[in-house]
Amino acid sequence: MRVDLFDFELPPERIALRPADPRDSARLLLVGADALDDRIVSELPRLLRRGDTLVFNDTRVIPAQLEGRRGDARIGATLHKREGPRDWRAFVRNAKRVRSGDRIDFGNGVTALAGARSEDGAILLSFEGEEPVELLLERAGRMPLPPYIAARREADARDAEDYQTMFAREKGAVAAPTAALHFTPRLIDALAEAGIGHETLTLHVGAGTFLPVKADDTDEHRMHSEWGRIDAATADRLNAVRAGGGRIVAVGTTSLRLLESAAGEDGLLRAFEGDTAIFITPGYRFRAVGGLLTNFHLPRSTLFMLVSALMGRERMQQAYAHAIENGYRFYSYGDASLLLPEQ
């Protein structure tokens, strides 16, 4: 499909620079097959059905933004994907000043050797020393805010908490699974009282999620890969939910992509561990999920293509036009949409 079919105009003032407070007070656009309804995230227990289960991504964002020097050259690095105990692929600013074998000093005793470049331009960084890389990043790194926020303000102490979900446990993401930012313990308790369960899986979100689609046709786009895991016990419980008539509702496109990667042609979920580069566009047949709670995405992005695959491209263009006209806040710190194709 032509990529320009997924374009739309977004006024810059619609981009949220801070999350809603409290988190579950964010606005929620309910998108069904035939209706749009303006709601609030805290109303979720009344919008879902008893027996449904929400699936969250429990990845934890690491301080993956680094500033350093190679000789007299200033070098910026955003870690992208882990390749080994001490090795990370990184998107590097001023990369033309970096050659394989160069040592980059990120300060506070943190150094890394530059290695080979991949096809997407990322450079392999091998961190030196014996301390775990996670400790090195805590010392020298910063929270990697999305580029559309970082271009308008600096990351600060608030972001260290604001950019983590209440489920954040497994360290390894360089971007938050932002749909889950809307949840609070109070909301989870209310969902449980309404007979709506929840499960977790892990997908370490990479910086590639923010890469623009440069191709003119979706068939020509190469999707970035991310590492994920869902264990057999969780898969079995989710299969039981569907067998009992409940819906699996993914919280975030990262949860959805891993669920669909773990589902077989028969629609059953199985244990999964490894990389996934699944690229979901209109025409895709969903195997596992019956709904999606997600934030509002960038024009011409793979994520807007994904939601268009679930609900239909024209339907999502209508929903986004409604959200823009009615003052919804967009992107990582913005408001949410609940997509239920059956309704």
From TrEMBL:
Cellular localisation: Cytoplasm
Membrane-crossing residue ranges in chain numbering: none
EC number: 2.4.99.17
SUPFAM superfamilies xrefs: QueA-like
Biological pathway: tRNA modification; tRNA-queuosine biosynthesis
Keywords: Cytoplasm, Glycosyltransferase, Isomerase, Queuosine biosynthesis, S-adenosyl-L-methionine, Transferase
Cellular-component GO terms for this entry: cytoplasm
InterPro entries named in the record: QueA, QueA_dom1, QueA_dom2, QueA_sf
Entry-linked Pfam families: Queuosine_synth (PF02547)
Catalyzed reaction equations: 7-aminomethyl-7-carbaguanosine(34) in tRNA + S-adenosyl-L-methionine = epoxyqueuosine(34) in tRNA + adenine + L-methionine + 2 H(+)
Record has Hydrolase as a keyword: no
Protein name in UniProt: S-adenosylmethionine:tRNA ribosyltransferase-isomerase
